[in-house]
Give the backbone structure.
Amino acid sequence: METYGGITYTVNEMNNFETFSYSNPEHRKKVQEIAEHAAKYFDFIILDDFFFTNSKTDNEIKAKGSRSWTQYRDSVLADAGYNLVVAAAKRVNPNVKVIIKYPNWYDHFQGLGFDLNQGPKIFDGVWTGTETRNPDGAQHIQQYEGYNIFRYFDNITLGRNFGGWVDSGGIGMGMDRYVEQLWLTMFAKSPEIALFDYLQLMSVPLLETFRTPWQDKYVTSFRWDEMMQPVKQRDGKLVKPRTIARAAGWSLENIDKFVYKLGKPVGVASYKPYNSLGEDFLQNFLGMIGIPVDMVPEFPADKQVVLLTAQAAADKDILAKIKKQLVKGGDVVITSGLLKAIPEKIAEISELRHAGLALVNEFGQGGTTRDILIPKVMYHTNDAWEVVSAGRPLTNGVNGFPMLLRAGYSKGNLYVMTIPEDFGDLYELPVNILNAFRRTLNKDLNVGLEAPAKVSIFEYDNGTFILESFLDEETMATITVRDGKAVPQDLLTGETLVKDKAPEVRGFWMMRNVSNDSRFTVKMPPHSYRVFTVK
């Protein structure tokens, strides 16, 4: 057994996560004393989620001065991290490694002192909070974030992201929710997982209420009844599982059967400048509609397609970077949120406008859904073209608005992807709209997905990929493969998929939006994954 020192820098967690005041000399002294004390006994120290500050005491207000809270807090935490924690600990123990564990609310870090540009450079490495818990909680985290946040921190730290960190929050939704966090952390190729915490592992019982309804109807990736079978100990004695430790063990034992066969994760490059805000956490919703997002902190100049959300507005040189991508023959997909944020810059490429909001409920061939509030993206006729549209109604209606718009520029294309005002309404969009999004973004990848929302795809550079359904019912998903001769094989069953017949398509306006990729349809049980390789 190896032990680390663990520090949670908080004054009173029960009082709205009351943190230390890093302008208070007494608090600064205590922070340093804690680091020095831990360094006497441990060669590894991990700072838990709370090395941030939400303090707004009179001292803090005075110290902040004319700076924004983000500017002040990032500055004071960088100073405290280096001088009060890392340097202080290393003076006591030159061999100590100080690691920071970052929580799951990454888009808002900078507002409380977690500067992802400078912070990881101060510490000897990071751990990533891949806990997603219940999405109806205060953070509204989508399951896909458990994968996405690890990949993002991996791209930031370049080899110093040591593991994912999961807890049992959200278990009230069923045991599947707990083990999904473990799967996604492993799908992201995390080298280790921290199961927080020992008390939970030993005391949270395997209650029958954690057994989800679909366990009786389908053969799912997590199988409650199989997990509950007695386990043979080393002495031969059979012991009945009692706590969630067995659920974690059972799930990871099954992941072990294939995770080593996966390559390096790849996806649609989404540029998020350091410490940027805008369309908060949108990439996690996009991951839940089958877009394999890979967030990066620098503009990716080597990709055919770059995805930009409103976060990209934080880059003062973003227009030049967009133009360079288009001139070389690449594509840029921007969200309606970025169009709203920088309309004058986008007008340099195409004179588009974010012109308020509209209610829509019909999507042409996709059919109808309930009313959804979307931005109205306006354009000059014949300068930009609607790829897919929506109206209320659209068919035989009186008006319509683009859900995906294309405007040519030099040798490339600028696309505008319309994002509903409530990101959760992405899950209400019909498959034809989701497919248009995916096809447009998928040019750097060999494998694509056509499926309802809440079916995700995870892709790797060696031709392996995973489909995972977060739906409560069984659904069908179609795998699309760009190489016409390649055929997916199920890595768990050995089954080779049979190619679908080419769909019958009539009419010019239909033909222009249909892919020529090979198609393979598979059945997806609820809350389950399937693992494939393309041969």
Q: What stands out?
A: The longest helix spans residues 69-92.
